[in-house]
């Protein structure tokens, strides 16, 4: 069997061979590929020159901004940590400084309290020594005068004229009464009315001083310091224990009332009436003797008279003998006259 050529095949399908159209087809295909290649190359060039660089620049710029943002965040975190550390250090330093200031304030307050207490104790001790020296120099007469003055001020009308209300006076006397009775019983058992009376008068005189009264109200004052402050230089152990009991019971401010009631109990035991005669002017010896005689007849007892001067009475005198008050002053008469006229 013979092979069929291309020309024969062409004839078999009904025509002669046409080589020219095949060449044109090949050229068309090559031109199309070339055009596509040129178009693709142009597209690549456009992308590479016009699109890709700005895109890469934008991406790089975005990456740089993100990196800068992350770096800034890291720096902010570090700055925040450093700031927090500084704040903690500042707070720690402030607390330390505040504690130092508080400690210094406490120390200063304690120094002030100690200095005030020492100064008050020193001053009271000095006054006590001066008073004791005066008592020793004046002997029994000076001590008796002091006792009378304190007694009159504590339990008689002189205290009421100083502005104490009846209720307040009654409360003070009620609180002072058991201590006065205990002191009286002790002095009676010891047979030492006069020493106890003098010691109580001295302690009452010191306790009545405003500076000492303020010191006695200070809770920082110890019992032993209070006893040393109020006790006279010459006193017995029993009297020191009595003052210690008053200090433990916070009754040292009642010493004037206790002293006055002790003297009243002593006077009653010795059958003596204590009276305070307050006049507008100083009484003469004859006038005072006449008053003593009248009071002896009135009470049928011995009379211990203490005198005082009050110019506001205008004239006459007021006699205060415990529960009995005789107002013979011109001021009292005018007041009664005014009341009568008003009624």
UniProtKB/TrEMBL annotation:
<comment type="function">
    <text>This fusion protein includes a component of the F(0) channel (subunit b) and of the F(1) subunit (subunit delta). Two copies of subunit b and one of delta together form the peripheral 'stator' stalk which links F(1) to F(0).</text>
</comment>
<protein>
    <recommendedName>
        <fullName>ATP synthase subunit b-delta</fullName>
    </recommendedName>
</protein>
<dbReference type="InterPro" id="IPR002146">
    <property type="entry name" value="ATP_synth_b/b'su_bac/chlpt"/>
</dbReference>
<keyword id="KW-0812">Transmembrane</keyword>
<feature type="transmembrane region" description="Helical">
    <location>
        <begin position="29"/>
        <end position="48"/>
    </location>
</feature>
<feature type="coiled-coil region">
    <location>
        <begin position="73"/>
        <end position="141"/>
    </location>
</feature>
<dbReference type="Pfam" id="PF00430">
    <property type="entry name" value="ATP-synt_B"/>
</dbReference>
<dbReference type="InterPro" id="IPR026015">
    <property type="entry name" value="ATP_synth_OSCP/delta_N_sf"/>
</dbReference>
<dbReference type="Pfam" id="PF00213">
    <property type="entry name" value="OSCP"/>
</dbReference>
<keyword id="KW-0511">Multifunctional enzyme</keyword>
<comment type="similarity">
    <text>In the N-terminal section; belongs to the ATPase B chain family.</text>
</comment>
<dbReference type="InterPro" id="IPR028987">
    <property type="entry name" value="ATP_synth_B-like_membr_sf"/>
</dbReference>
<dbReference type="InterPro" id="IPR005864">
    <property type="entry name" value="ATP_synth_F0_bsu_bac"/>
</dbReference>
<keyword id="KW-0406">Ion transport</keyword>
<keyword id="KW-0175">Coiled coil</keyword>
<keyword id="KW-1133">Transmembrane helix</keyword>
<dbReference type="GO" id="GO:0005886">
    <property type="term" value="C:plasma membrane"/>
</dbReference>
<dbReference type="InterPro" id="IPR000711">
    <property type="entry name" value="ATPase_OSCP/dsu"/>
</dbReference>
<dbReference type="GO" id="GO:0046933">
    <property type="term" value="F:proton-transporting ATP synthase activity, rotational mechanism"/>
</dbReference>
<keyword id="KW-0375">Hydrogen ion transport</keyword>
<keyword id="KW-0066">ATP synthesis</keyword>
<dbReference type="GO" id="GO:0045259">
    <property type="term" value="C:proton-transporting ATP synthase complex"/>
</dbReference>
<comment type="similarity">
    <text>In the C-terminal section; belongs to the ATPase delta chain family.</text>
</comment>
<keyword id="KW-0813">Transport</keyword>
<keyword id="KW-0138">CF(0)</keyword>
<keyword id="KW-0472">Membrane</keyword>
<comment type="function">
    <text>F(1)F(0) ATP synthase produces ATP from ADP in the presence of a proton or sodium gradient. F-type ATPases consist of two structural domains, F(1) containing the extramembraneous catalytic core and F(0) containing the membrane proton channel, linked together by a central stalk and a peripheral stalk. During catalysis, ATP synthesis in the catalytic domain of F(1) is coupled via a rotary mechanism of the central stalk subunits to proton translocation.</text>
</comment>
